[in-house]
Amino acid sequence: xxxxxxxxxxxxxxxxxxxxxxxxxxxxxxxxxxxxxxxxxxxxxxxxxxxxxxxxxxxxxxxxxxxxxxxxxxxxxxxxxxxxxxxxxxxxxxxxxxxxxxxxxxxxxxxxxxxxxxxxxxxxxxxxxxxxxxxxxxxxxxxxxxxxxxxxxxxxxxxxxxxxxxxxxxxxxxxxxxxxxxxx
Length: 184
Known about the structure:
single chain; 184 residues; mainly beta; Immunoglobulin-like; five-stranded mixed β-sheet; four-stranded antiparallel β-sheet; rod-shaped
């Protein structure tokens, strides 16, 4: 919090290398170095580094370590004295210290301790496959198919949304009637 004297901002009063403080309405005008957060590292709730990405529909428990102006690093904070915020609540939400994805994408998360907000941390989550689209060579959607003996049909499978992994495996229940082969 800046201090004002005669309407002008003034720096901390120093005398022989020591900061002298004043009280205003029972509060110190300049926060002490031991109480002044200068950086925050966002971790998981165990204090480990955050993963760069999470599986589809993942969630993650968050933690934060604050570094103070006097150089000490505070205890790991998970819910008390820290607030975590998702910068895009349409992609992921935060409740307490639990980050939960609503759908795939990249999320930016910040932590606030003693009024100081960290730089945003980026974590990615894959898009969950929601459905498939089957088309023929002409691009026409196939809802059902009937083939005669020795007849072949090439089908294209697209996993939706397009940002989801396109890996798929086609199978058939009764291989005495037909077979499925995958082209490279």
